[in-house]
Amino acid sequence: MFRVAWNLLCGFPLMIPSFLYQGVHNDHHNIKLYGTSGDGEYFPFVHEGRGKIILFVVASFFAPVFFFVRFTLLAPLSYFNKSMRYLVLTKISSFSIDFNYQRTRSSLNSVDMWQAQEVVTCLYGWIFLLLTLEGFFSYKILGFWWITFGLVFFINSLRTLAAHCYRYSGEDVLGISEQLLDSVNIPNSFLGVLWAPVGLRFHATHHLIPEMPYHSLGKTHQRLTEQFSKKNLYLQTNSSGLLFTLVRLWRESST
């Protein structure tokens, strides 16, 4: 029910239906895939350098346009060309941060009704275009849509950069302790309720207990903090703030 409401209110209008996230996020929590080339939600920013960090943030502004073109134009055309269809399904059917990530067909098929989501998102896009061309909507609305959601994606890019330390190259499978220490909690962020209102500032807690609902992560973190000693690995995931975490990533990244 939650996914249906999300897609109707946000996913379809923003051109980011839930299937782009489902499956890919499960792989991110697979202990054998985390941080590897099979993990679309991880990128070795520390090894790849600051240029990739800048590129990732700048690209976030264009994400709304990218997904609009993907669903409105490329999706219907891909049904008439096998090569294009393969490209669409493997390279641009996931909400990932690694531009080289290729999604497998088995990952897509693990998501119920992903093709129906694709079709409905395409219809949303074409209805919006037709209403604009017919004068029901001003072209300014299209620009306002881009600016608004570009800012949303920009904030999300900063939040994503602060979710992990991104210190590993992606060549080796990491142990559970390494995966935990590579994740970040920002429990005392004054503005955390604005940039992570649901609870994603407790990202290390999320990786420790992936099944925990986001809105319960804060209370869970507090209880774990009360139980563990200061030397515990879990408490070493804490960061003092979003800006501090971003600056640390910048400093650790090669030039």
Write a structural description:
There is one protein chain. By secondary structure, the chain is mostly helical. It folds into 2 domains: 2-161, no CATH class; 176-252, no CATH class. The protein has helices at residues 2-11, 24-28, 45-48, 50-78, 82-91, 105-109, 114-133, 139-161, 176-181, 192-195, 203-208, 217-227, 242-252.
Number of strands: 0
The CA-CA distance between the termini, in Å, is 46 Å
Instruction: Determine the fraction of residues in helical runs and give it as a percent range.
Output: 55-70%
**Major sheet summary line:** none
β-strand percent reads: under 5%
Number of domains: 2
Q: What's the helix-strand series?
A: HHHHHHHHHHHHH
Which structural class should the secondary elements be placed in?
Answer: mainly alpha
Question: Taking Cα atoms only, what radius of gyration do you get, to the nearest Å?
Answer: 19 Å
Mean pLDDT: 90
Shape summary: globular
**Distinct helical segment count:** 13
Low-confidence parts: none
Topology of this protein?
Elements: H1 2-11, H2 24-28, H3 45-48, H4 50-78, H5 82-91, H6 105-109, H7 114-133, H8 139-161, H9 176-181, H10 192-195, H11 203-208, H12 217-227, H13 242-252
Can I get a quick summary?
By secondary structure, the protein is mainly alpha-helical.
